[in-house]
Amino acid sequence: MKIRTTVESDLDTIHTLIAEQSLNTVTRQRFDEYLATGAYRYDWSWVAEQDGRIVGLSIWWGMEQFDRPLSIDGLYCVPGADRVAVWTELIRHTLTAFPADAEPPEYHIFLPNGWRDRPDVVAELEPRLKAAAAAGLSERTERLRYEWLPEYGLPVRSSRLRFEPADDEAFVDAFTRVIEGSLDAATARDVARLGADGAARQELEIYQSMPGDRSWWRLAYDAAGELVGFALPSANNGGPVVGYLGVLAEHRGNGYSDDLLAEITHLLVETGAERIRADTDLTNKPMAACFERLGYRNHEVRLVLSYPAG
User: Fold this and answer.
1) How far apart are the first and last CA of the chain?
2) CA 54 from chain center: how many Å?
């Protein structure tokens, strides 16, 4: 089996393969649009060939400003081919191209709520899980996807916290203090790999590269002037997102996450947002409860496949 990056002459074949949706979220329109913006690239998509014929395709997504992709957006295979074998080789080949110090790549799979009770979904998911695990992406993190729409109603804005902009180093300090004891699996993996300061700086770099405006970021202070946490509204290719919010360890247990999420929601609505999306780990019960208290609704699941921590 030969693995290679795609070229422009493969476009018709790519369009044909992505017509088979299954668990993939890539559509022809999305592929062409992201190809134009740089979120997809021919050299970020790989095909598997057997006897000179394309039998499989992997499409990776990345930030337009980055020189390598961050996650798999879709896996495709022609009828009759061994999906696990083809996808394993596609993923394994791509992973070997990443430098050792690069941001570890992931595979994100979007699933309906209650997917475990859907035999059709499980049947499509299993070969993807097997291929990803065989290639090294064996860690699984299930994340709940939430969204806010205007008809859900704006949450009440905080009257007990003051929100102020700040420079990058102030946010690095706040991030470093917030990630102590974080319930977020990705944050815990980054801290294990980079240390608290390194993980904080990486998060800031990622958010600075996103379409969201840097001027939206806020530190939060209580009535005594003490730093409580931060609110970091942002946006990605799909539109406005909650981004990141965090409460310092010594201020947890006071319900401040509600204040931070309310501020993020208001800030994004003031920029014209008509839909706001957010994710949190299934195991992060406090954050999930916060979203639900403030009117966000869970609409699907994101399953993240990654390298095991350490």
Assistant:
1) 31
2) 29
Q: How many helices (H) and strands (E) does the chain have?
A: 8, 12
Q: Pick the closest to residue 110 from 263, 284, 287, 300 (CA basis).
A: 300
Distance between CA 40 and CA 103 in Å, rounded?
A: 17
* pLDDT tens digits, one per residue of 64-84: 888 889 999 999 999 999 999
Instruction: State how many domains the chain has.
Output: 2
Backbone angles phi, psi at 138, to 5 degrees: -100, -15
**Residues 6 or more apart whose Cβ sits within 8 Å of residue 295:** 148, 152, 153, 154, 155
Is residue 65 located within the same domain as residue 115? yes
Q: Which pLDDT does position 310 carry in this prediction? A: 59
Question: Are the CB atoms for 115 and 122 separated by under 8 Å?
Answer: yes
Q: Tell me, yes or no, whether 126 and 157 share the same domain.
A: no
**In degrees, to the nearest 5, what angle opens at C-alpha 142 toward C-alphas 137 and 20?**
70
Structural domain includes residue 127: yes
CA within 13 Å, CB half, 204: 20
- 109 plus 162 within the same structural domain: no
- Residue 154 falls within a domain, yes or no? yes
Enter the DSSP assignment of 46: E
> Which tokens is 211 given?
């379409």
Q: Is residue 89 part of a domain?
A: yes
Q: pLDDT by residue (tens digit) across 130-178? A: 999 999 999 999 999 999 999 999 999 999 999 999 999 999 999 999 9
What φ, ψ does residue 280 adopt, rounded to 5°? -150, 150
For residue 93, give its domain range: 2-137
CA distances 128 to 17, 257, 279, Å, are 16, 35, 22
pLDDT at 131: 98
**Order of strands across the sheet that contains 276-281:** 2-5, 45-50, 53-61, 71-77, 106-111, 297-306, 139-148, 276-281, 239-247, 227-236, 218-221, 162-164
